[in-house]
């Protein structure tokens, strides 16, 4: 079975499925080499925010390729924000 690539077309529907609010996708110009997109979402609570982040990390691990970078998550000890760097 071929799994879909973990890309913007895969991530946004996953976020919708997880009831993310205020989904905002910002495509960065090609001159910016370290990132193609910023995706900003809101959650309905701290618990919801953390659950979405953990679900996205789980899905990334299942769909990433060998050459894809490891993820980093910032803000784990906070109640109101998280940042996941998928590389």
UniProtKB/TrEMBL annotation:
Q: Where in the cell is it found?
A: Mitochondrion
Under Gene Ontology molecular function, one entry of this record is:
ribosomal large subunit binding
Per the record, a Pfam family? Answer: RsfS
Its main localization is: mitochondrion
Question: Which keywords does this chain's UniProt record carry?
Answer: Mitochondrion
An annotated GO cellular component:
mitochondrion
Instruction: Explain the purpose of this protein.
Output: Required for normal mitochondrial ribosome function and mitochondrial translation. May play a role in ribosome biogenesis by preventing premature association of the 28S and 39S ribosomal subunits. Interacts with mitochondrial ribosomal protein uL14m (MRPL14), probably blocking formation of intersubunit bridge B8, preventing association of the 28S and 39S ribosomal subunits. Addition to isolated mitochondrial ribosomal subunits partially inhibits translation, probably by interfering with the association of the 28S and 39S ribosomal subunits and the formation of functional ribosomes.
Family assignment?
Belongs to the Iojap/RsfS family.
Put simply, this protein is called: Mitochondrial assembly of ribosomal large subunit protein 1
* Lineage per the UniProt record: Eukaryota, Metazoa, Chordata, Craniata, Vertebrata
């Amino acid at each position: 079975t071929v799994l879909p690539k973990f890309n913007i077309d895969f991530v946004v529907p996953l976020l919708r499925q997880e009831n993310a609010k205020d989904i905002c996708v910002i495509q960065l110009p090609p001159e910016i080499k370290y990132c193609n997109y910023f995706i900003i979402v809101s959650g309905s609570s701290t618990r919801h925010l953390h659950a979405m982040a953990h679900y996205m990390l789980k899905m990334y691990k299942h769909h990433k390729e060998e050459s894809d970078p490891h993820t980093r998550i910032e803000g784990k000890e906070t109640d109101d924000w998280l940042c996941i760097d998928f590389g």
